[in-house]
């Protein structure tokens, strides 16, 4: 069983500028086969944008994804964890804030992401969520 966030996180980050269009962010998500990107001003994390944010906060309201910025629909000032934080702290933050992903930040710089799926794979590898997280994405 993993003890620290660094043991379960997905290293590296994929980010867009705050003024990037939702189309640009969605295309990056598709190309990287991920469901979220950080919204960053330089190296500073300002938000987290998920595929669900794009669908629910923009497209469902009829907003034009070519003209709406990532910053306009992302979750601003996201809760973050550090690589040396215990996994239990990440779980507690996810529960408290009802989020499925947390940026991992070290010395003010983003270094990875930890997801609910990452935690399931590490803490309960036989669970349905762990199985789903390990499965290859739909083509």
From TrEMBL:
Pfam families (UniProt xref): CBS
Domain of life: Bacteria
Tagged with keyword Ribosomal protein: no
Residue ranges occupied by any CBS domain in the UniProt entry: 9-66, 74-129
SMART domains associated with the record: CBS
Record flagged with keyword 4Fe-4S: no
InterPro entries from the UniProt entry: CBS_dom (IPR000644), CBS_dom_sf (IPR046342), Diverse_CBS-Domain (IPR051257)
Alphabetical UniProt keywords: CBS domain
CDD domains: CBS_pair_HRP1_like
Protein name: Oxidoreductase
Organism: Streptomyces dysideae
Species lineage: Bacteria, Bacillati, Actinomycetota, Actinomycetes, Kitasatosporales
């Amino acid at each position: 069983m993993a003890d620290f966030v660094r043991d379960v996180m997905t290293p590296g980050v994929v980010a867009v500028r705050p003024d990037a269009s939702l189309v640009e962010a969605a295309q990056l998500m598709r190309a990287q086969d991920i469901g979220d990107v950080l919204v960053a001003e330089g190296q500073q994390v300002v938000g987290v944008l998920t595929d669900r944010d794009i669908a629910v906060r923009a497209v469902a309201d009829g907003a034009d994804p070519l003209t709406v910025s990532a910053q306009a629909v992302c979750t601003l000032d996201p809760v973050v964890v550090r690589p040396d934080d215990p996994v239990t702290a990440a779980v507690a933050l996810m529960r408290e804030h009802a989020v499925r992903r947390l940026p991992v930040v070290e010395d003010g710089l983003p270094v990875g992401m930890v997801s609910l799926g990452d935690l399931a794979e590490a803490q309960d590898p036989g669970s349905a969520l762990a199985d789903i997280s390990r499965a290859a994405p739909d083509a």
